[in-house]
Fold:
Amino acid sequence: MEKAIHEVNLANKLDLIQEHWSPKIVGELNDTYVKLAKLKGEFIWHHHESEDELFLVIKGVLVIKLRDRDLVIGEGEFAIIPKGVEDCPFAEDEVHVMLLEPKSTVNTGEVQNERTVAGQWI
Amino acid sequence: MEKAIHEVNLANKLDLIQEHWSPKIVGELNDTYVKLAKLKGEFIWHHHESEDELFLVIKGVLVIKLRDRDLVIGEGEFAIIPKGVEDCPFAEDEVHVMLLEPKSTVNTGEVQNERTVAGQWI
Structure:
């Protein structure tokens, strides 16, 4: 069956998101989900055993703490965190991001805890 | 070996691109390449047998002609063309796009011709 083909407006979809640290699915291609999220404050240290993850900053400034340094990603910039790398995202002020992740990705990486959320379409 | 982790500025990378219809690779995650391209004029009708493709418009307006209608994608919008769907991208004025494609994707789909270009990192 052919999937519906349509344009997706990032700002309109972001308007539907209230909660921080709860990525929503807005597209799928091949084995990858396109997600949008609003982030504020500090997440948790985690890693993904077998999945690389891309963060594209739509609005604001995202800091991704690595074990040896901080990565600062501004508007119109992206970074890819390779599998196995421990990171901890941090946003002093609210940040809007587009994420690319394999469909198998769990947001908290190799652990499941109160910050774990299931992917949901918006 | 760990890949270098760094932020990529879309505007700075786009400044390096002169030619139209010649996507350049700016990132890789899992089996996917992140590419940037400047488009102007009409491409060719093509399809990808087994790969979905995402177009995110960074600047300008991209029209993707489908066999039954035109898809109009503005700044801050994306669309995913599923595998097997015939399409013909068209840009009246220059458009800047981010593309997501499996590493196996050939830009002209199932045919190779003078519009076929090999992926190159910038």
In short: Chain A touches chain B at residues 2-3, 5-11, 27-32, 34, 51-54, 58, 66, 71-74, 76-82, 84-85, 100, 102 (CB under 8 Å). Helices of chain A lie at 10-15. The first helix of chain A runs from residue 10 to 15. The two ends of chain A are 21 Å apart (CA to CA).
